[in-house]
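Study the following:
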Amino acid sequence: MPKPASFLSLSLLLTATLCISLVESRVPFACDPHNGLTTSLVFCRVNLPIHVRVRDLIARLTLPEKIRLMVNNAIALPRLGIQGYEWWSEALHGVSNVGPGTKFGGAFPGATSFPQVITTAASFNESLWEQIGRVVSDEARAMYNGGMAGLTYWSPNVNIFRDPRWGRGQETPGEDPVLAGKYAARYVHGLQSPTGLRLKVAACCKHYTAYDLDNWKGVDRFHFNARVSKQDLADTYDVPFKACVVEGKVASVMCSYNQVNGKPTCADPDLLKGTIRGQWGLNGYIVSDCDSVGVMYDTQHFTATPEESAADAIKAGLDLDCGPFLAIHTDMAVRRGLISESDVDLALANTITVQMRLGMFDGEPSAQPYGNLGPRDVCTPAHQQLALEAARQGIVLLKNSGSLPLSTTRHRTVAVIGPNSDVTVTMIGNYAGVACGYTSPLQGIARYARTVHQEGCSSVACRTNILFDRAEVAARHADATVLVMGLDQSIEAEFRDRTGLLLPGLQQELVSRVARASKGPTVLVLMSGGPIDVTFAKNDPRISAIIWAGYPGQAGGTAIADVLFGTTNPGGKLPMTWYPQDYIGKVPMTNMGMRPSGGYPGRTYRFYKGPVVFPFGHGLSYTSFRHSLALAPTDLSVLLDTNLFATKNYTLSSNAIRVKHAKCDSPSSLFHIDVDNTGTMDGTHTLLVFSTPPAGQKWSPEKQLIGFRRVHIAAGSKQRVKINVHPCKHLSIVDEFGIRRIPMGSHSLHIGDVKHSVSVRANLEGIKA
């Protein structure tokens, strides 16, 4: 039985308090004011522009020193007063000890563990994502000041959750590129909390690009060549990364293991130099996924010699290698003339610039911004409350026949059953650290009612029904039954893609048997990152409600119980489609195509038209909402430059205008939507706005998300929500050549249950066509 969260949190607080006196100030990474050897060096002068300091430092380095700074475990340079540095730390949903750059212990026994990203994405709450980022970076800076962590965090993962079997889908914001892009920009902004050029920590968006297969039917990420059309790259796979760089101003991008169209991403100059740094304007460094440069040579056999792989990666735009490959083979690449020392200098300039933006060359950390953060700023009550609130906001009510919320007077005894009913570590998913404390579902429910606990299955694999009888007895004698089922990291994880979408083992049998035996209402709670085909439960009238909790973080049990008993009115929406089991027989994981073709049904809500268990954006409430349009323009104009028509022979009769030929800096049009809470309970409503292009647009999506707002509305009240719609950003589609265009004609906006038509036409310098 896990200890209650309050006990663990108190223990952590006492431990931290006792250790505070033992925490010494971190030795300055560089430019120690007490070191007479370095105080006069130009790169230590904080009043000079960063590029001047970077250039001075690089000029002082020998080639062997430069090369050993191009890997994640960068060497110390005592003659220049520079410490060694481990670049690899993780902060996907809290400070993590997955990377070697972060350790827990002493004054820092744990850190706040927020819900897994797929769960937080279900909140559709941009301000929450940024707030979580700020808390995580507070704790990261505190641990850095205490000598337990770095300042470069290789998070978030913003790959598209394209295939429901992907074991790492849990780490992502879901299947929609707009949602993923907004999550990326806001979480990165929270992490980095920039002040001018200065950074609180340096985030990293990964894994660029078209990476969403780990290990499926003998095909693994190290050998996989993702064949991706220009269209799918531009309107799906690259969208979150572009948002991360352009809007989020991220300090780093990580290239992936896989190849894209026959070329390793970490050796593709079109992707790295051309797109990330050239088109999007990355102000930061590009890092490889760990050992992926070695994989290029050892596994993919992309080059004949290792030094050619090293040279190809550096020339393509890679700045830092997570792994030893560049440290071993770059020297020979220079000797052979495959690259020059100036190529190495360019890479170093990008990494050292980020370190200087972090203040790592500014002397005493305690004298810098955030230098006052320490053990007292980790696992604070406010941080843990935010973790609880994030879990509450991310929980999705999938089905409710009226039995929820439970009543503390009618449901005094609750049978709590299932392999995930009393778990703790399962709730924080992967790429997590050591949590401040846990509240399991069983513990959470016990705060509301007397509980009778039976596992039913000893693990999520559920290979035997030997414990089912006891579970049935518990359900037969309880006022209500809550089954907490689903998955964990033994089923879905990095390098572990699923083979099916059904509940593992005999879980379905346990659920059905318990539901038949239950005296009172039966509620199914699912923990998982990926979707599960629970059609049987959806259609079973004896299962009165279904809740998806994702992996809800350290406070998950409290949040689940709060939703079950109505303290929290659920408002989450699914960030991914839940497909039936037979769907996966039609879509090999290796097929990267988004659009339907022949017998191939396509992927995600934007292109797949077939049956689903639950659709993208699905989520119920304990109250009801009604939408109405208060202000809705019926015509939108796209302004064009007269020079285009003089030089390009354009005509206004074109049915789709290139976005780059439109004046996209023109103002957006505001749509005003009134949302009425017509029920008897206060609730939070997530308004999703989709667009559908005019008929006849080849290869266009069925519909696409263009905006969302989360609003809290008291029972019987109304709120007006304003949504900006801009033709360039929201009504454009990508053609088969990867060119973004704005179709002329009638677009449909789907706002909740309301549809509205908008006519889009081209105007020449504001003159009506």
Remarks:
- The longest helix spans residues 126-145.
- DSSP finds 22 helices and 28 strands in the chain.
